[in-house]
Design goal:
Layout: H1 2-27, H2 34-64, E1 81-88, E2 91-94, E3 98-100, E4 104-111, E5 116-121, E6 127-133, E7 139-144, E8 149-154, E9 167-173
Parallel strand pairs: 1-4, 3-9
Antiparallel strand pairs: 1-2, 4-7, 5-6, 5-8, 8-9
C-alpha cells in the first residue's frame, strides 16, 4: 500500500515537472519586456522562497519526529536489562546470554577490532534486530523477547576470513 502511494506521488511530481518544463520551453520563444517580468517575479520569488523553506521544514520535522526509531517506552518503574556486547574477530563477548520472555533487553554493542554486524535471528532465522558493532563507538539495540527459544547472533558485516564462523546464541526461557 505504501509503495503504491509512493509510486503514484512520484509519477504525479514527475508529470508536474514535465508540464512546467514544456510550458517554459514553449513560452521561451516569445519576447517580452524584461523589466516588467523582473519586477513581477522579484516580488513573487520572496513569497515562493519563504513558502518552500517553510514547507520543507514542516516535511522534515514530520518525517524525522520519530527518531530514534528503536527507543523503547518502559512501564513506570521498569528498567531494562543491560547487556554489554563486544564483537571481535571472530566471535562475541556477551555479559549475559540467558533471559526471560517479556524481559526488556538493552544491548550495548561495540567492537574491539574492525566493523562487525550484530544481527539477532529467531528460530526460523528471521532477522528481528540488528546494528553495527564499531570500534570506539557503542550502538544500542532495544528488544523484548516475546517467545522462549534459542536466538542466534550472526555477524552482518564481512570482517575477515573467519566471518562465516562468527555465530553466537541467546536463550530465552519462560
Amino acid at each position: 500500500m505504501v509503495q503504491s502511494v509512493a509510486w503514484i506521488v512520484s509519477l504525479v511530481f514527475m508529470l508536474l515537472i514535465a508540464v512546467v518544463f514544456l510550458f517554459v520551453a514553449m513560452n521561451s520563444t516569445k519576447r517580452k519586456e524584461y523589466e516588467v517580468v523582473k519586477k513581477k517575479w522579484y516580488k513573487a520569488r520572496t513569497f515562493y522562497g519563504i513558502t518552500l523553506v517553510v514547507l520543507m521544514l514542516v516535511v522534515t520535522i514530520y518525517t524525522l519526529r520519530e527518531l530514534p526509531y528503536n527507543q523503547p517506552v518502559y512501564a513506570k518503574g521498569e528498567e531494562p536489562t543491560i547487556v554489554d556486547v563486544e564483537a571481535l574477530q571472530f566471535g562475541y563477548k556477551l555479559s549475559a546470554r540467558e533471559f526471560k520472555a517479556g524481559e526488556t533487553i538493552e544491548f550495548h554493542v561495540t567492537s574491539s577490532d574492525v566493523n562487525h554486524g550484530f544481527g539477532i535471528y529467531d528460530e526460523d532465522m528471521n532477522l528481528i534486530a540488528q546494528t553495527q558493532a564499531m570500534p570506539e563507538y557503542t550502538n544500542k539495540v532495544f528488544i523484548t523477547f516475546d517467545h522462549p527459544g534459542t536466538y542466534k547472533i550472526l555477524c552482518l558485516e564481512y570482517c575477515g576470513l573467519g566471518h562465516h564462523v562468527m555465530v553466537d546464541e541467546i536463550t530465552v526461557t519462560n
